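Encode chain A's predicted structure.
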Amino acid sequence: MVGLGRLGMCSQNRVSPWKKRPWFGKLVDPIEMTGCMRAASCVGLWCMVLLCGWDAAGQSQPPEFRALWVDTFHSGIKSSSQINTLVADLRAGNFNAVIPEVRKRGDAYYASNYEPEASDMTIADSLAELITRAHDTNGLQQRIEVHPWIVTYNIWNNQTTAPAEANHPYNLHRDWLTQNNTGAQWDGGNYAFDPGHPEVQRHTFNVAMDIITRYDVDGFNFDYIRYAGNTWGYHPVSVARFNQRFGRTGLPSPTDTAWMQFRRDQVTALVRKVYLCAIAVKPHVKISADTITWAPAPTSDLGWTNGSAAYRNVLQDWRSWMDEGILDINIPMNYFRETTHPTDYRNWATFARDRRFNRHCVIGPGTYLNSMSNALVQMRYTRIPTGAGQVADGTCGYSYAVPVLPDEGVPRATFLAALTQTNTSRLYENNAQPMHATRVPTPTMPWKTAPTRGHIKGFVYGSSTTNPLDGATVTVTGVVQRTTLTDATGFYGFVDLPPGNYGVSSISGLTSARSNLVVAAGVVKTADLLLRTNGTTPPVIGHVAVTERTNTSARINWTTDESANSIVDYGSSAAYGLSVTNGAMVTVHSVTLSNLTPETTYHFRVRSRDGSTNLATSGDFVFTTQPTLTPPTITAHPQSQAVRVGSSAALSVTAWGTAPLAYQWIFNGNALANATNSTLTRASVTTAEAGNYSVVVSNAQGSAVSSNAALTVTVPSAPRIEQVLLTLDGRIHLLISSDAGYPVELQASPDLASWNVVTRIVNTNGITTLTDTPSENRRYYRLRAE
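Encoded structure for chain A:
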């Protein structure tokens, strides 16, 4: 097996524009590979490593999941010709599955009932056509499973320009956008919907089930099923739900243990709901998720909870999903360069495989980060048993568009041939049998083909079926006993129950409900519970707060201990006179008051009526609207400048408008991460940072965009000794040319071994004449540009 990788000094931890999702990690030792070292030789910057093979010649190949992710930022499924090429390529590589991106940012590469068609889809329905081509087995072609992938919570990726489609979810529901603990909604690359908002959960569930129920899919794949970081998830509705459940007030700390778990539970709840509802209608459909594996990798369960980015940073508890059984396939996005992070790749692969529990684990190597040889090294590693005897159930490579490291220049056809053809595979590895030497089916899933467990799902309602209860306790008793809470939409579920008689119950206050049922293997039973109120007790109002005050609007928030409607009475005095009503029966209430007068004090009270018509009324509260807002005006635009490579550049803007002003710098049309100040400093600039810079200045009233400032990065040419003259008196005259303004050091040596500095010069016009009086009979000169 041949592993091709750059030496440590050459390895670049670059984040490439074709990447499916961002990668974070720390540098480790350059090379660590499992196998038998035979020889190594280095030429220039490249090092070739020969390893003993892991697969024996002629060994039969067992079933395994073989797939590629196909993103829609590149060609793949946007037209009939692309789909034909894709399916032909998959068959040429003996792949048996494909994971195409069908929802990029709130758009649809299919006929969606909920979101607009993607603007670059040139056929009526990409997903339907792909399924037809992939499932066609005429002529003994291999059937290819189709597992459509959606970007779950990220909803738009342009800070300055909204989607053109009026029915795009970003345009319809900006009030669903998540925010961080400082109130920002733009995370540097995306706007995202808040996982803890009930309407976000309903909408995203509907998007998923729309695909699963209407298309002949083999699976369904979640991507970005997480938070951007643990400082995110602070939508007022989510915070109010948390505070109501735990009897808190104010904003919790990002690292508050209960708050972190609450947010993990929001993501888990969506996975559970889709899993149970999907297999209830189509038991064969395989639910999968693309999960986080950032460095460092854990080697134990304690390392998972205490140090993994998945659990502590982005709040994605995929280990518990596997343990509970709400995923059929875990696909860790194991995106690491073999030349720099081999240990993290192996530790994550081991951790995930050892925690398959009763489901499948498919490792997802970032082949685009690796040479062809090192991509094969990582793919084959998944077949080596862990210390606990676990192997992966296959691989899914990222990506079809960029199958291996672009710097290597290996075309896709060669990548496919290296997987299937001995003559090509031996150019990249020393294995008698190519990785995908023969066609194989995907592995069977015993819990689907021969199930021994059953499941229960349902909703808990208060008073009526229009009133789902958030956070209600549900207990199942019978062969086993378990307890859970309903999610933001009132849904609950229990997975993998031994068959038998069960009772499902929920209790709230003085009322309870129970349902008896029989759980059968392979069947999802539904038990909805309706809690009747006692008919006399009004709701208890709490946590009244005013948020999102502007000069003409304000949002009023409160909670009730049972589902009830929402009424806000308001006016210039405690007599009120104006009122807004929302009839939805909820426990977390949020009502926006509009068309208010700037700089005016308003009195208000909130009221809520439950399903038995019992009315609760709060006391009187006041708030004052903001002054009239002035949109930003840029008074001093950033100026173009030229700087030398390696030096620093500073661009600044001056703007006037109602505070607070927010800044976002744009480089060549793309927003720069963490560039949110009025001054942008680029330290140690490279030629890659040359280009056009502008800045968007915004406040609650609007935004303004500066003119472009061109940053030119100059690279000095090598200094030259143009002429050397020896005078009759033994002195040496040197004529030196170099770029004006750049320091140059003249060094001399009598033997080409030891060098001394003669002088340091800074040319003003590019030409300098120097005179040197050597003490040796022979002297060598050289120049060094600083």
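DSSP finds 14 helices and 45 strands in the chain.
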